[in-house]
Design the sequence.
């Protein structure tokens, strides 16, 4: 499962069904919520994977997340 140009509009308007995500992503989301945090950074869901310009820009910021 990953964010792409093809599914960007759908996922940003309807959201992502967590049940459709891999178990490791579901576990990360659950752990984040249990820690009282609202957001979790998962690069496959936060960066458009087939957009090389976005990847170059966003991947350099991952260390700060």
Sequence:
């Amino acid at each position: 499962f990953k964010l792409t140009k093809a599914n960007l509009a759908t996922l940003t308007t309807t959201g992502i069904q967590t049940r459709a995500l891999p178990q490791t992503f579901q576990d990360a989301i659950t752990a984040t919520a249990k820690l009282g945090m609202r957001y979790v950074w998962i690069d496959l869901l936060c960066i458009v994977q087939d957009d090389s310009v976005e990847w170059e820009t966003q991947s350099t910021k991952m260390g700060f997340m």
Remarks:
- Helices lie at 8-14, 23-34, 43-46, 52-59.
- The chain has a mean pLDDT of 92.
- The CA atoms of residues 5 and 23 lie 24 Å apart.
